[in-house]
Design brief:
The protein has 654 residues and is α+β, with helices and mostly antiparallel strands. The protein folds into four domains: 9-116 and 225-397, DD-peptidase/beta-lactamase superfamily (Beta-lactamase, 3-Layer(aba) Sandwich); 117-221, no CATH class; 412-509, Beta Barrel (Lipocalin); 515-648. It has 17 helices and 22 strands. It is 37% helix and 17% strand. The strands form five sheets. Strands 1, 2, 3, 4, 11, 12, 13 and 14 form an eight-stranded antiparallel sheet that branches. The protein has an eight-stranded antiparallel barrel with strand order 15-16-17-18-19-20-21-22. It is globular.
Length: 654
């Protein structure tokens, strides 16, 4: 899950002080310390040999410094061998323990999903599973059942291409301690997300879907998922430093990479996150060298006598496109089976990336070149760094052959203006307050310039500029990414797809759900509520100073009602904002404050309805002065608007 690093204007206005743990070090980015893996083999199909290693050393040193990452590990495979496995920087700053490619154990997040889908395809190979069969057929003895929301059943192929149609849900995926981890069956049954669209319609990344596929495999194998994977994948491939165990086994704990965040010029260490659903990948810990073995297995190469874990035909099927997001733009990256298409420069690339709060990883295979690249970092700065490395590696060995588009063609201005608006990822919650995370961090605001270029902005991602390649298809200015739009029968843009992010679909939202409307509505509400409290306090002071006659009982009741409602709405907003900032902790164990806010939001709603009634009495009975009555009415209206926006965020589910 992405942890928000950039807050909206509302957050900045309300959250004045954030308390963080003391940093472990106050120095700048550590000096890069490179350590060769004991298994290092000179590059075979990488034509420039030692020059490649020097290039990688320089690239990684720059990345660690520029993105504030203490340590990283890289492995490159080619022509059936490990071409290079190397560690950079530090696994532990306190002890100055360096990263070693075949020793340091990293959390790799959702990159571990590739292990799950490999295991599922083994089940397909031996006949226990079928990709196009209703998954409920495999769950007859399980407490987990996929509801029949739509006529079309969900299949393993839908799960493997992230097109099952589940809403996004994070609750139940993390715990406060390993003692709280329940069985996969219990967790999946207790935290089942709603089906919000028919399967096979759109790609929308789903952690739950992958975990469900792993559970299906376990049910049909009569063995726990982790035991199955240990026996059928890790042991045959010699992945001796790879495990789902939490906490780490005693022999691996001394080799664990510490996860860090960088704030105010210092690094802060963090304890490992406890994950509850092994197939989802979060709990998988491994070394770069072990991931090299896994990549070689997927490139259909045997090494050191290790067993082949999949037939060549099965591997080819996994690496082939299984879901096309846009028929009008076949060059747009889609989904293979479990693998994400990551084509760049016209080069065929499949793989996956993984995110935990502190660790960022990426695995990329070039099947036609028999080459693979894996990288992992122990700080959030690795998020952009991994894609920079992928692009730089691709540019170095497989450069772009076509000429980038520079100038918008005729008619581009009108076409660009017709595409403006907000496009929100379908990977959001439709039923809980987790929707806040999706709306704030997974929305692209598309604008148009007078010259016909498109611009995109999103929280934490800056601004991008795009030029039209052909109607509905835009190329990144100065890059190779694509934006592709989907249209309805009337020609209106309804969806947006990004070439560089295959497992997502973005849906155009109506004007009243745009981020600018949301922020303006909540911001105006905050100003209105604060003004009520100031008028409330000011009136009390003025009456004391000027010895004015106190208001009637009904006037005090009306004013007190709106004042109390204002306090409640402000409290609810602040609590949910802090819950958003501390999302992972709240998902693992909701705080008392969050649980209280879930009650207070309904009390505030009742108070808002009461304020509407009081507004009518205020005008009919001519409470206060006209200016005060107008102010009361405006704030009451803002409270209604505020409640509506919280409903759209599902902070106030009705």
């Amino acid at each position: 899950m992405k942890h928000p690093s950039t807050h909206t204007a509302i957050v900045l206005a309300l959250v004045v002080v954030l308390v963080s743990t003391p940093p472990i070090a106050t120095a700048a980015t550590p000096t890069v310390h490179s350590v060769d893996s004991a298994e290092r083999i000179e590059p075979t199909d990488l034509s420039d040999g030692d020059q490649f290693e020097r290039w990688l050393d320089e690239t990684m040193a720059d990345q660690l410094e520029r993105h504030h990452v203490p340590g990283a590990a890289v492995v490159v495979v080619g022509d059936g061998e490990v071409a290079l496995a190397k560690g950079y920087g530090y696994a532990d700053l306190a002890s100055q323990r360096p990263v070693v490619a075949n020793e340091t154990v990293f959390s790799i997040g959702s990159t571990g999903k590739l292990v799950t889908w490999t295991a599922v395809m083994q089940g397909v190979e031996d006949g226990r599973l079928e990709l196009d069969r209703d998954v409920n057929d495999y769950l007859t003895d399980s407490a987990v059942t996929v509801p029949e929301t739509y006529p079309e059943p969900i299949t393993l192929k839908h799960l493997g291409t992230h097109s099952a149609g589940f809403e996004d849900s994070f609750v139940g995926m993390v715990a406060d301690s390993p003692d709280e981890i329940r069985s996969m069956e219990e967790t999946l049954a207790a935290h089942q997300p709603a089906r919000v669209r028919p399967p096979g319609q759109f790609v929308a990344y789903s952690n739950y879907g992958t975990a469900l596929a792993g559970h299906v495999l376990a049910e049909q194998s009569d063995a726990p998922f982790t035991a199955y994977v240990d026996e059928r994948i890790f042991t045959p491939l010699g992945m001796e430093s790879t495990t789902y165990a939490q906490p780490l086994p005693a022999e691996l704990e001394p080799r664990r990479a510490v996860g860090y965040t960088f704030e105010n010029g210092a690094y802060t260490p963090h304890d490992p996150v406890i994950w509850t659903l092994p197939p989802e990948g979060g709990s998988l810990r491994t070394t770069a060298a072990d991931m090299g073995r896994f990549m070689l297995a997927h490139l259909n190469e045997e090494r050191d006598g290790s067993e082949r874990i999949l037939d060549a035909e099965t591997v080819e099927e996994m690496h082939s496109r299984q879901f096309t997001k846009s028929q009008e733009a076949p060059e747009l990256n889609g989904m293979a089976y479990g693998f994400i298409e990551m084509d760049r420069n016209g080069e065929r690339i499949v793989g996956h990336w993984g995110d935990t709060p502190r660790f960022k990883s990426l695995l990329a295979l070039y099947p036609e070149r028999d080459v693979g690249l894996f990288v992992v970092y122990n700080s959030p700065g690795g998020g952009p760094a991994r894609f920079e490395l992928l692009q730089a590696f691709t540019d170095r060995y497989y450069p772009r052959s076509d000429t980038p588009v520079v100038v918008p063609p005729d008619g581009a201005v009108e076409r660009a203006r017709a595409l403006t608006g907000d496009y929100r990822s379908l990977t959001v919650s439709e039923s809980s307050w987790e929707r806040v995370l999706g709306l704030m961090t997974r929305t692209y605001t598309v604008g148009a310039t007078d010259e016909g270029y498109l611009t995109t902005t999103s929280v934490g991602a800056g601004t991008g500029t795009w030029v039209e390649r052909r109607p509905g298809v835009y190329e990144e200015v100065g890059g190779s990414d694509l934006l592709v739009f989907g249209f309805d029968e009337s020609g209106r843009a309804t969806h947006l797809f990004r070439h560089a992010f295959g497992p997502a679909t973005y849906e155009r939202v109506p004007w009243y759900e745009r981020l600018v409307v949301l922020q303006a509505s909540l911001g105006a509400g905050v100003v209105g509520f604060v003004s009520v409290l100031l008028v409330w306090l000011g009136g009390f002071v003025l009456r004391r100073v000027r010895d004015r006659e106190p208001p009637s009982g009904r006037e005090r009741l009306a004013r007190g009602l709106l004042g109390a409602t204002s306090l409640l709405w402000l409290g609810v907003l602040v609590i949910f904002l802090f819950a958003w900032i501390n999302f992972n902790a709240e998902a693992a164990s909701p705080s008392l404050a969050l649980q209280s806010a879930k009650v207070l939001r309904y009390v505030a709603l009742v108070g808002t309805v009461g304020a509407v009634v009081a507004t009518g009495f205020a005008w009919h009975q001519e409470y206060w002065t006209r200016i005060i009555r107008v102010h009361y009415s405006v704030v009451t209206l803002l409270a209604l608007l505020f409640a509506w926006q919280l409903y759209l965020l599902r902070v106030l589910p009705l």
